[in-house]
Structures are given as structure tokens and as C-alpha cells.
Amino acid sequence: MSGFSFVQITDHHLLESEDAMRDGFSPAYSLRMVMRHISEHVASKIDFIVSTGDLVEPELETHYQSAAKLLGVNSSATLPGPQHINIEGLKDFPFYFLPGNHDDRALVTKYFFPESQSPKLYNFSFEHKGVQFVFMDWGPRSKAHFFPETREFLANVLKAEMPSVIVCHQHVKRIGSRWLDAFLAENLNGFWDVVLPRQDNVLGILCGHVHITYEDEYRGVPIYGLSSTAFPFAKVDEPLVILAPPHYRYVRIEDGVMTTRIYKVPI
Length: 267
Ligand SMILES: [Fe+2]
Fold this sequence. Notes:
The protein has a single domain (4-264), classed as 4-Layer Sandwich (Purple Acid Phosphatase, chain A, domain 2). It contains six helices and twelve strands. The chain has helices at 27-41, 61-71, 105-112, 148-157, 178-181, 188-195; strands spanning 4-9, 49-51, 83-87, 90-97, 124-128, 131-136, 164-168, 202-207, 214-218, 221-225, 247-254, 257-264. α2 (61-71) runs parallel beside α3. The longest helix is centred in the N-terminal third of the chain and has 15 residues, at 27-41. It is globular, with a radius of gyration of 17 Å. The protein binds fe (ii) ion. Fe (ii) ion is lined by residues 11, 54, 100-102, 169, 209.
């Protein structure tokens, strides 16, 4: 199998305009710095960028208009993508997007995949160079929910005799923060009941949501969490925003092994 690489970014929390600030912080500027860093350091080595959601906050039309302009989305595309973006030196760069809890699925579809009907949940799979990417949707609330249709979708796609990467917004295992771990799905065991029997084919799970970068595993399944391109949270029991560089994750898949490294972006 030939190898390839891609980058994950997550939790952009963009506002109604590029100039808008949240508590004195500019999510748009921070995202631009991340995209510039990707452009200058890894773009020539990767096949695509995938965002694991929370593009805007709150999920209003004005915010999506501004976000689409910022990212330089200018082509029609159908689900599951890729869309193509033009920002900070990235030209027509393949870009996948999976909505988070702060995203309106209909508006995401309208601005990123204008040729598609909006699904209720963003459950999709596609193959890239012999690897199956499984985008799964825990729903539009901070607290994840393992929907019956997502369970059915996941069970079905994981039957494929192909190495698979599960990509989702919300986290899938406790990280050790009371308020963030309260957002885990109540029926999380149902998720693992589907994944574990197929774990030999699952290279790993990429997620966002908690604005904290970590690496973990559950019964041998690698789990990779990623900090926000905007503001990170501290791993403590009550909400606490900290000022620290945004991260992105470079992922390489080669000979059935997935390895990653984190880039920290000075802003
Ligand atoms: Fe989130």
C-alpha cells in the first residue's frame, strides 16, 4: 500500500466577520495563522485537510457567509467532498468538513456542498488510496448522542475489509475533566460495541470538541484529540479558557500504520 498524509484541524468558532473578537481574541486571525503554517510547512506533503467541526459559533447564516469567504470556498461540491479552499497560500486545496455540535447541518451543506441535499446527520464514508474514512456524527448538541442511524451506518461501513479511520467531532473516552466528560454520550458503550469487534481494521479515531490535544487508546484502538484553532481549554474540572498556541495534527498512513505529530502555531 502506498502511503499518504493529511492534516486535521478543528473547532474554529468563527464569528460574524473576520474583524469580530470574542473576549479580545480573533478566531479568524488564529485560523489564518494555522492555514499559513500548513501552507508553508506541510501542504506539499499532504493530500487534504479535514476539519472536525465547530466552524462557527453561534450557527447563524452571517457566520457561515463570513467563514466561506475567509476559507475561499468558491466551487460547487457534493457530499462528502472534498470542497476546495483558497486561503493563506493554499490554492484550490482539497478540504473535508464534518460538522460539530455548534454547526447547523443545513447551513454547512448550503455553503460547503451546495449541490447536495442536507442530511440530518453527517454520516459518510469514502475511500482514499486504499483507506476508508468514516465520518460519523454525534449530533448538534454539546452532549454527544449515539443515534440508532449512526450505529447502523457505522456497523455497516466497518464491515469493509479495508483499514479505516474514524473521524468525529465529540470525544469518545474520558479525558479527565468533569465538565468536558459530562458531554460524552450516555450510550457510548454502544459505540465501542460496534467498533471493538472490527478493531483490527480501525487505524485510529480522530476527534475534536474538547479543545485539548491528547493521545490515548481504548482496548487497543488509538484515539487522537486535538486542540482548537481558536482558544484552548485547560484540562480542569470547570470551564477555563487559556491563551496558548493553536494546534494542527499531521497524520501519515503507511503500510497499515497511522502515525501523527502535532504542530503548534505561533500567533
Ligand atoms: Fe464542539
